[in-house]
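Section 5: illustrative case.
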């Protein structure tokens, strides 16, 4: 059967959770380019934010989220997020996600920029993995059809409305069409654009490129969050050291053992992620080092090993006992706040096309995501997508956020562009479109990307399809960062180091 009510692209928490809701309303196909468990969800250590504690409220959660978003959050979307959070947590518990408990109640911890403890976690620091495994098991015993090792290559339209997708099966090389009523993009983010990233190999921005090529609007691509603390050991891929480690009392020190964060922020080690990441970068430059240290040796060893068993075991396997020795860390690319522009029902500007999770830009994160709001965003807005598809009433429209629309510019041929390769792309993005940006670096990246875009070969396998996708995402991100002549949230321009009231708006690209 090649017709389904819902075709969902991606098998992270967004894809799985949406599929489990959708199967109650019709037939469902999940298309995923790897195995069903290959996704970024399992790397999420911190947990899910929700105002369920005695000293917490939706109002406090709203305030913290708005503050982190640095003037660009969609307040309506944030209100929906915080109000519907407890019900969506109940849904996960209903699916069997075993959140950690303490004295008979769900255990809550605190992370940076949260005013109270409101982070639920599972397996200590294995929240994403627990959710992923629980949901994937539910999917496997459901009537949901899953096509693994298949990549969606095109969204099919009929008179401007979604009618299906094309996908290539990497095992056979065959390209098939699947017809449907609704397509839901849930392919995750684009962290693999950068040389150093906490993301897995699947995070190449597939859904964003698919949507863009179909005429959907793409927004806020300049806002990419760099996690302050990824393990930095020679020969070891960056491994996320959860922000919750600092929430539990870990402190950052430089090469000389000096605790430097109080010099940069009154919130010290619990400042927002963008502040901490830049502070670490500046401190590394000051000391001539490629790392700083996250010190948890003052926290009782039993608390470290039980609260962060995954981090403890990973470090120990690489010769580091974090209960005795500070953890060498440095920033790494982590989370894309921008993506496919959607309303509060997950709808794009193309009828029948929806987006969820990191692929989507709902507006809740603004210029800088509040820690542990991402998994919550998936639950809240995926539920609203299904409610929208079940509604027979026409869309009444929603107030459009202040935005300027652009097309990717045509740039003059650049004959001296370096050779096109994945390592060259990742290094250039890290160096020129990373934590600190300026006009010279961004322009150099922009003309190089435009040159590479012209010579991209026709894709034939997964790697070549992904390279095409990544060039599209890189161009959108670089051109947006070049346009935004200010610093706001995760976007920092050394040549425009302060926010500008005239830039309190969004940059939207459309093909």
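Designed sequence:
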């Amino acid at each position: 059967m090649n017709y389904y009510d819902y075709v969902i692209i991606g098998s992270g928490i967004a894809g799985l959770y949406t599929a489990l809701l959708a199967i109650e309303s019709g037939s469902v196909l999940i298309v995923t380019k790897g195995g069903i468990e290959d996704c970024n969800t399992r790397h999420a250590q911190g947990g899910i934010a929700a105002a369920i504690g005695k000293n917490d409220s939706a109002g406090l959660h709203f305030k913290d989220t708005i503050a982190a978003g640095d003037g660009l959050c969609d307040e309506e979307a944030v209100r929906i997020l915080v109000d519907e959070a407890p019900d969506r947590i109940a849904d996960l518990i209903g699916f069997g996600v075993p959140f950690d408990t303490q004295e008979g109640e769900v255990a809550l911890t605190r992370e940076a920029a949260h005013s109270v403890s409101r982070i639920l976690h599972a397996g200590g620091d294995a929240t994403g993995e627990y959710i992923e495994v629980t949901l994937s098991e539910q999917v496997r015993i459901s009537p949901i059809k899953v096509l693994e090792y298949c990549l969606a290559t095109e969204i099919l339209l009929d008179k401007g409305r979604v009618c299906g997708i094309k996908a290539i099966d990497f095992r056979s090389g065959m390209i098939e069409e699947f017809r449907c009523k609704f397509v839901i993009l849930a392919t995750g983010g684009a962290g693999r654009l950068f040389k150093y990233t906490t993301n897995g190999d699947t995070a190449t921005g597939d859904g964003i490129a698919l949507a863009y090529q179909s005429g959907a609007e793409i927004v806020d691509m300049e806002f990419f969050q760099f996690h302050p603390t990824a393990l930095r050991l020679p020969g070891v891929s960056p491994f996320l050291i959860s922000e919750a480690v600092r929430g539990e009392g870990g402190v950052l020190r430089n090469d000389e053992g000096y605790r430097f964060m109080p010099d940069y922020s009154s919130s010290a080690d619990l400042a927002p992620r963008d502040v901490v990441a830049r502070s670490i970068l500046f401190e590394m430059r000051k000391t001539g080092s490629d790392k700083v240290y996250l010190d948890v040796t003052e926290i009782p060893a039993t608390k470290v090993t039980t609260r962060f068993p995954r981090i403890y075991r990973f470090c120990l396997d690489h010769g580091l006992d974090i209960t005795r020795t500070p953890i060498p860390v440095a920033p790494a690319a982590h989370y894309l706040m921008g993506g496919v522009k959607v309303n509060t029902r997950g709808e794009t500007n193309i009828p029948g096309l929806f987006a969820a999770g990191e692929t989507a830009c709902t507006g809740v994160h603004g210029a800088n995501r509040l820690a542990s709001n991402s998994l919550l965003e998936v639950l809240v807005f995926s539920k609203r997508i299904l409610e929208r598809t079940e509604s027979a009433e026409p869309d009444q429209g929603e107030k459009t956020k202040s935005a300027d629309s652009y097309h990717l510019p045509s740039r003059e041929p650049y004959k001296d562009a370096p050779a096109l390769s994945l390592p060259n792309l990742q290094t250039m993005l890290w160096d020129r479109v990373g934590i600190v940006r300026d006009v010279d670096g961004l322009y150099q990246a922009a003309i190089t990307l435009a040159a590479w875009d012209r010579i991209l070969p026709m894709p034939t396998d997964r790697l070549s399809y992904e390279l095409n996708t990544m060039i599209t995402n890189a161009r959108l991100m670089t051109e947006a960062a070049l346009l935004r002549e200010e610093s706001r949230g995760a976007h920092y321009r050394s040549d425009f180091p302060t926010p500008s009231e005239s830039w309190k708006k969004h940059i939207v690209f459309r093909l």
